[in-house]
Write a structure and sequence with these properties.
The protein is mainly beta and 326 residues long. A two-stranded antiparallel ribbon has the order 1-6. A hairpin with a 4-residue loop joins strand 3 and strand 4. It is globular, with a radius of gyration of 36 Å. The relative contact order is 0.17.
Length: 326
Amino acid sequence: MNNVSAIVIAVVVGLTACSSNDSGGAAGGDNGGGAGELPFFGGSGGESGGSGGANGGAGGAVGGSGGVAGAGGAAGGQGGSSGPVCSGTALQCVYMTSSECQLSNGCKPDSQCEGTAMDCFALYQSECYAQEGCYWSSASSSCAGSSKSCSSFSDPTACGSQMKCKWKTTCSGAVLCTSLDKAQCSQVPGCYQSADGPPKTHECSNMDQACTGSTTCCPGSSSGGTCVYNGHGAVCRPNCSVANDCASLCCRNGICGDLEQCNSTCAGPGTGCSTPSDCCAGATCLNLNNKGLCAVLCTSNSDCPGGCCAPTSSSKKVCVPSEMCQ
């Protein structure tokens, strides 16, 4: 196991993720072999007839027949295969955002209503009428009945109107970069055009595409972008000031996120934060290039998908990119 060398990550005081991409894979197969050489063409003719005698000698032997023509050379070897047009390792579907999931061939968004509906007896009269399965009892002057379960809703609007229920979309499936065509390749985080090779450290990554700590994000908005590491992978997210700066209309603590992040009461891993209390349970707030981000808490390297659990100045440990445990 590699040791974490010279890494002390301050909570809300400085996390810098550095990495470099590996070089690209080998090119396609060898070129076709050259055509076979042509052998010698035609044999020598027979000897000429002898001189006539006094009475005229017999004619010479009939000239020899021509040599057999040489057979043509072997056909040229077949050309090597061109290889896949797309390479790399795709970000796992389960860690993709809703927009990434919809654009990634092989991934499929799965939506369902989750949570535990609030009990009828805990509702005020004004809330009781809106909760499916509940009714107001004049006899007891309280809300009675049995709330309809969250899992029974198949519509996001109806789900959201039931108190304590929440519509959630997850991503399932798997993407193999080598199975994608040229157009699909650019849509999947972690995949890249084979001919171009992997992204270089001096190049920038597009918004919603995979990035590394040393790779800057291309300007996706007037205020640029941030390489967000959520404990499972890293992607570029546009910086923002207001909701309208984001295509998702979700601007949380200066970074664009999925709409469900803004609907949540806490910030998940990789989401912007101002203080540790902004983050959901199991995460804390770090300062990454002067921008707060929630990071997953850990106790050992085995707790992190990337295999790197690094200490912070607050005695806590968080999951960081594997390159930081070199």
